[in-house]
Amino acid sequence: MGFYGVLECGSPVYDNHLITALVERWRRETHTFHFTCGEATVTLQDVSVTWGLTIDGEAVTGVDLYDNCMSNFVNDDTSEVDVVKFTRCVALIIIGGIMFPDYQGGSARLIFLKLLRDFDNVKSYSWGSAILAFLYRELCNASLIEKTTMAGPLYILQIWAWSRIKCVNHDRDGLTLVVPSVDPDAIIPVSPYGARWKVGFNYTHSPTHSVRIIRDSLDPMNNNEFNWIVYHKNDIDVKTIIDSYDNKIWRCVYPPYML
Asked: Is 199 in the same domain as 145?
């Protein structure tokens, strides 16, 4: 289905204080974070490289419904039909719990169920663009003064911040990511960029668990303290994802007067 990269990044553990500090700098007019060193935002490339999801293809659309999904575990006596049902249930847990989480945290939107009918066709949808649109919408809603909660793929936002903002970049105790050899016929794909953050952290030199401290760290941030170029094509866990797309997919065409 193409969701292996999401699983490889592990269960998200959120730093709510970091996310709150970022929401305070989000501007609905430009869909960017405003820092003293400039404006920046999460892009389609960030979503694709971090989770290994497709960003081109059919649109993820449907009627927005909520319901609870129940399933039993698979055993040796489980029929093939039940295995297929269980697989769809697991996919809904990934989609509803990590990729498109809501405020409740215990429900899955049945809008996605029809997209899981044909397993071979699931990867044809542009999951990455749907995730980015959902994140933008939640950031815009959360930036309103009357809002106190936020849903959405916040793990993407958190990894984006860790990768780019040096003052909130935690020291990693050691990389556990083992990148397999690149084999186009392999069943298991190469782990995406986001999996490199599935490690222990050292919080000695990084602010955490305090919105005020994170604010004070972001306020004086200069251009050298923001990592504008994160993905290097020589990194094996990035190269395989970038090489899988046409180079044009990372670019845009715009009129000369916009320069």
From this structure: yes
